[in-house]
Each structure stands twice: as structure tokens, then as C-alpha cells.
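User: I'm designing a mutation panel for Beta-galactosidase and want to avoid disrupting the core. Could you give me a predicted structure to guide residue selection? Please restate the sequence first so the numbering is unambiguous.

Assistant: Good idea. Sequence first, for numbering, then the predicted C-alpha cells:
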Amino acid sequence: MLSPAAAKVFSLLLLFISSWEICSVKSTVTYDRKGLIINGQRRILFSGSIHYPRSTPEMWPDLLKKAKDGGLDIVDTYVFWNGHEPTRGKFYFEGRYDLVRFIKLAQQAGLYVTLRIGPYACAEWNFGAFPAWLKFIPGMEFRIDNQPFELEMQKWVTKIVDMLKAEKLFETQGGPIILSQIENEFELVEWNLGDRARVYGQWAAHMAIGLNITVPWIMCKQANAPDPIIDTCNDFYCDWFSPNKDYKPKMWTENWTAWVQQFGTPPLYRPHEDLAYSVLKFIQTGGSMNNYYMYHGGTNFDRTNGAFVATSYDYDGVIDEYGLPSEPKWGHLSELHKVIKTCEPTILNSEPTVIPLGPHQEARVFNPPTGGCVAFLSNHDPNLPVNLTFWNLQYELPPWSISVLPDCRTAVYNSAIVTARKTEKKMIPFQGALQNWESYSEGTSSSDSSKTFVKYGLTEHLFLTRDTTDYLWYTTEVFIDPSEGFLYNGQDPLLNIMSAGHGLNVYVNDQLQGLHHGSLETPQVTFSKKVKLRGGVNKISLQSVAVGLPNIGTQFEKWNLGVLGPVTLSGLNEGTRDLAKQNWTYKIGLEGEDLGLPFTGGNSSVQWVQGPTLAKNWPGTWYKTTFDAPEGNDPLALDMRTMSKGLIWVNGHGVGRYWSASIAYGNCSPHPCYYGGFMNNQKCLSGCGKPSQIWYHVPRSWLKPTGNLLV
């Protein structure tokens, strides 16, 4: 028997040894064909995309808690290069772009992180997250074997990796990052651009491997991803997918919860029954990681939306744009996650036996030698329910559904049987919130000559603006000889203008001649109209308007915006005059932007008017008012139906672009969308004939109790 003193020493020794053993266990993330192995444990993982800049830091803790409570293991996000390095060499990691803070909050919520460094994101984000300055580096060619691009790309990726290592944010350092992604859906580029693209894709992969992040790299939609990088699937369904090597796990980086909404298109909703069906179909065929894109979509604040993409990025997410659970989707998927977690060891330690039960029905049975039994019963018929006999027991399955039997006997979950409570969300008007409007209308010429410059010929929009504003003015003078025939015969000359997009507002002698805009499919704009000119000097002013930069495609360096010509005036004594071949005066941005109207409402030099003189239905008009914050914590939104097109700021924060005049067209059904049958990006549309977007999210954290400035 030990003496008290000896017992004390022995207990201290045991404590010391135990502590040493805990500290000496090395964190690891590896994989085999069945799944990721985190610290020695093979896992089935549920993940959800939440993009940090599409919500506010004040929203992050609640969003991440709801994700964890909903049964997620991982939060997935892109890294948005143009948000972090808007000007070459000047970096920003604050506010909504505080990436490190977001990752640390995810860990505090008990979540792992998948970091999709890219640097190409797509994500319906402005320029695919590439900074605009990248386009103007001499010799630049995007996403191809090109030294200027590879140099900048490697520099950026290395900066992010080094920053995260310094913060000890990889799982092997005690952090939450278990996966990182290099490039994004690059296979599509290879198909289009051939050998030089393939060389770049392999270079990018090996460059990433050389950074030694100690957790696996992934490449989505990249069938030739080199070892040890894991190729993954993006689609509405990924049960069909197999990675390019038998020893790699089957992972789904984007299970699309809906589809992107553009200005001019209606929103798409994906039925929760079909979403659950797709997840179970994936897991029963060997899938080990499912990521919902998007779990919370959020908002394209400021000017971050890609070309013609709506400001709302709700994406019919499991958590809506405002941070509220989308019920019954959130509850229905939460139950699915719980059920699969109870089956995890059995599924991961065996291969399924497939038992046909009908022309569109089957059972997949996991029955490892170590014990346990899990069955998935599937009815793939999109229209007809069935009664199945499985192991001498009867089961009723709705159409297009899968039942989970954790003991191979009791069906505890079916993808089409929804028990979660449905909630209806309603916007309640805040009476008297927005009154006492004032307006300020800009002219077509700048009152400050220091803000203008003259160039011969026409210059590309983005080359001048560098994406610091949506707007660029082109102004030129046209001299009409008093002897011109049209001054006497009434046959006005024809003004023809071609613009590469996206919008074009035309003025002649300060009189509006027309407002025109393109679309995502056809961004180019054509103006052709007979115009009134006078003898002597006439002024033609063209306002080019961008609606975000394209986010998908190839050869970003060749994409153009603005008035590039031809610009001609026909019906003159001389015939046709080429206006592109003369001097043009340029003004970058709006006068109100120079005066700081979005942030302060301007200074005393700005002559705001109100009451009967308030400007209405006139382009280039600024409006402002003040309001007090509604009581409570309910989410807030602006109803913009009475406006046309522009941008919104609240207390200097960019709410985003609005375009209420853009009406949604498509094949909408007046009936609720039926969940059965394969989902696609034209199914389950609603809201045709209405503005594409009416409500614009205003985060509570941007408001003061009183005196909030809306511009």
C-alpha cells in the first residue's frame, strides 16, 4: 500500500504522463477511398458554404452557430482576391474581409473549414474575384501558361497560405482548416483553351503542393488533378461521380441549393425533398463529404456582384439572406444529418450490397463483419409511390425518395416526408420610416475641369475606371455648318453608337435621347436614332454604365466595356462622319461620387432641393433622407419598387446595386414546384413579370438608433 506522500507523487507522475501524451498526439488530415481521416478518425462530413464578405462580422457568430446546430461539420468559403487587394500591393483584411476572424469564429463554433483559395472563385462575384488591375499588367493572359499571370497568382496564394500558417489555422497546427482548394472548375477552361491551359493547370496544382500546408488540396471539376490532390464534383447530383483514382474519396464541393439570380431573371427555388434525396443518393453510393452551395448565400454588398447578377445572393440557402433558417429546409436537412451520423461507422467500414426491388427501386445494405447494419431503400420513380418488401418487412416510399434504416429494419427518415415545421416570412412596412426626401441632379458635364481629361478616339471603360466606379462619361463636340441641308429640309441626321456594354445613356446638347442596357447573354448595346442638331457647336455626351464585371468564361484579358465604336453621324452633306476619329473628353465616375454624397450627403456646395422641386424620373439624380432604426432585432430591407436603377448606401455602407426596372422573364409556373424528377437551372422558377429583386438587405449593425442617412 502506498503512503500518502508516495500516492501524491504517483498521481502527479500520472498527470504529467497523461498531459505529455495528449500534447504529443500529432493532428493529421489524410484520406483514403472511403473519406477524410481527421486525427485518425474516418468521417462522413456535412459542409455548407458561407462567404464571409456576403454578410457582416456581426452576423457571423449567429450564422456559424446555426450551421453547427443544423448538423454541419464544415464551413466552406472562397477567398476573394479583389476584396483583399483592390489596389496592387495594398491589402485589406478588415470588416467583412477579415478572413482570419471568420475562420477563428468558425473554430469557436465547433466547425472545420474548407478554404477555397482559388484565386479564381467565379461565385457570381465581380470579375470572378480577380482584381481589375490584373488585366492591365503587360502581357497578361488569365488562367493559362503565362508568366505574368502565374507570378501574380503564386504571389497571392502564397501570401494567404503564409498568413494562415502564421495564425496557426491549419488543422495540423491546431486550427480548423482541413481542406484547401486551388483553382476552380478549371476543366472547362482546358476544354476551351487546350494545351497551354493544361500546362497551367498542372503548374497550379504542383505550386500548391509545394506550399506544404499539411492538409489535402482539392480541385473541383478537374478530372486530371494530379496526385495527391483530390478531384471533386459540383452539380445538382453527384452520385454518378468517381474521383480520378480509386484511393481518393468521393467528395461533393457544390451541391447547388438553387441557382444564381440575375437582373432580368426570376429566382429559382430547389425543393428540400429533392435536396435531401440528392444527399442520400450520394452517401449511399460512397460519398463522404457533401457541401451545400449555398448554406447561407447572403448579399452582394457594394458593387461585388458579377455582370448582371442580382444584389441578393440568397440562393434559396438553408439559412436565408437575412440570417434566418429557411424552414422546413433547415429542419429537414438537420434530421438527415443526425440520422447519417448514427450510421457513420457502419457505412464507412463496409461496401454496400445492392438489391434490386423493382424497375426504379433498390436497397443498398451496409453490413460490416464488425457488426451493425444500415439500409437505404430507394424509389427513383419521379411520379409514383411504391410499397416495397425488404427482408420480409413492408415499406411505403413516396416518389423520388430514399428511406434510411439504421438497423436495416426501422425506417427513421425519408427524404420526401417532411416533419420540420414550415415558417412563413413576411415583410412588415415600417410606417413613416422614409420621409422628407431631397434630391440633387447632376448635369452631363463636370463642374470641375480637374476631373476631366481629353484623349483622341475612344477608350475602353475599364481601362480608365479600373473598376472604382460603374460610370464613365464620353463627351465630344460636333460642329454643324450653317449650310447643312438637314437644317432646312427637316431630315435630321442619324446618330449610331455601338457599346460593348453594359448600359448607355445618350444626351445631345444636354437633352436625354435614350437609356439602353444589355443583358448577360448580350451585353452589347446599340443606339440608333435621328437627333436634333443646330448650326454651330453641338455636344454629344455618352454615359457608359457597368453592371458588374463578368465572373465566368475564358480570356478575361479580352473582355471589354464601354463605347468602343463605331460612333457615326449620317445624313450630312459630307455623307457619314466618323465621330470616333476626333477628340473626346472623359470623366471617370459621377460628380456626386467626387463630392462624397454616398458617405456624408455632401457639403454646403451641394444644392439639394425638396418638396415641389424634388426631381423625379431624371437620370443622374441623387436622393437622400434620414430615418430612425425600427425597434427590435428583426432583419431590415428596403422596398425599392418605386425606384428604377442605381445604387444604395446607408450611413456610407454600400447596400448594393438596385434595378427595380429590370423585370424577370422566364418559364414560371403558377403552382408550387413539384419536387420529383431531376433538378435543373430552369425548373422551379417563380416571380415572372415582377422586378427581379424588390427587397434589399440593410444589416442592423450598420444603423444608429436615430438619424441614419439613406442615399
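For picking mutation sites, this is relevant: The chain has four domains: 43-327, 345-422, 443-589, 596-710. The radius of gyration is 29 Å.
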